Amino acid sequence: MSRLDVLITQGWDDYALLDSGQGRKLERYGRFRFIRPEAQALWQPHSPDWAADGEFTGGRDDEGGGRWDLAANVPERWPLTRGPVRFHATNTPFRHLGFFPDMGAQWDWMRARISERSGSALGPGSRVLNMFGYTGVGSLIAAEAGAQVTHVDASKKAVASARENAALSGLADAPVRWLVDDALKFMRREVRRGSKYDGILLDPPKYGRGPDGEIWTLERDLPELMQLARQLLSDDAAFLVLTVYAIRMSALAIAALMAEVMAGAGGTIESGDMAIREEARGLLLPTAIFSRWSVGATR
After folding, report:
1. 63 lies in a domain?
2. pLDDT in tens, 211-229
3. What is the pTM for the complete model shown?
């Protein structure tokens, strides 16, 4: 069994978790501050006064719904930066802002793996697959580090946003394949073709639909997704990353799944919680769970 760990994303110039408590969180995205629901913020806020440019209210994590109440000065979208890439933030109907800031630590780790030269297959020209790639921040970080990236998402709108983020980052001509496809159908075809990747990033939703109405359910489909990913790893692959935002699923469960899938492959498995460090008190706000396999990894 792999050890359980906490993968912490710190705030950066264009993002910070400012405060949290009583089922909400206060965050800064560039020059704007927003309040969003957060079921795991069980404690009291550091400050009772949360000045913000907008708040998402209503709806539940397992049912969706809700709405944004935004100040007049909040634009439809605005640019942010994470390391070497730029991308747009926008207030989506799904309560987030067009990217997931807690992935920052995963992106940095992946970029380091791609940039490494010793003890790893990865480096310039290596092949990386980003499944459920959404608006492409992870794909662009991999591409900027020199990888050839295949970015797959079932949403045509998300892939269009990813292409716009590529242009914003000056990476419009980077070696990225932007594909609108159902995850399982795509990966099954890739296995039949004999395709191989040196690194794979999996960020599946709890529930989703493919471009032709295919139904994705995490608990049912995750085991096949992982088995397909294992078959797509090259003989000298360097990493396989899985992140899961379904609160009812345990890090212990996906750690056991990763260990089963990667049995006999050597390397190291790390699993546990993903969290963002709050600026006000240094509290860790858990956001997701993860499991990742790697060879010759550096933390």
Report:
1. no
2. 888 898 999 999 999 999 9
3. 0.92
